[in-house]
Amino acid sequence: MKLNIQSRVIRYLAVRGFYIRSVADTASDQQGIDIVAEKDGKLLWVSVKGYPAGTDKTKPSFQAGHWFKQAIFDIIEYRGRDKNVLLAVALPDYLRYRSLAQKITWFKTAAKFVYFWVREDGQVSVQ
User: For 90-127, how does the pLDDT look when each residue is reduced to its tens digit (9 = 90+)?
Assistant: First the structure.
């Protein structure tokens, strides 16, 4: 069974004193910011992607590429909306996502965001 990435990140944030202001229903493809949290008057917006399952025509690795690009576009859009908000992308610690993240390390610095990596055992790390 694959973990629910969004719920693990919410738990991680709550334990660290973040107030969870809103959570999108990602299962129904609800539009908007996936997680909005706040701590010490500072907002955090998180784009969440899960484990790619693939389809009859699409391999999971290919699907992961599309989802990763969508998450990065979210960061571009969010940064355009607010220069001061904290931003993050939450992803399963999946080899394809890691290799894509490695390719755009320059962008991570420029856009000022972090990754929340969720391991199979549920542990969350920040990069």
Answer: 999 999 999 999 999 999 999 999 999 999 999 999 99
Question: Residues 17, 39: contact at Cβ < 8 Å?
Answer: yes
* Tokens found for residue 71: 């998450």
User: To which H or E segment does residue 21 belong?
Assistant: strand 19-23
Instruction: Kindly state the tokens that stand for 124.
Output: 């969350």
Q: Which residue has the tokens 């999971």?
A: 60
Which sign does the torsion angle of CA 91, 6, 74, 40 carry?
A: negative
Report whether CATH 2.40.30.10 matches the domain 5-126.
no
pLDDT tens digits for range 60-83? 888 889 999 999 999 999 999 999
pTM of the model: 0.92
Extents of the domains making up the chain:
5-126
H/E stretch holding 8 reads helix 5-15
CA 21/CA 29 separation, integer angstroms: 19
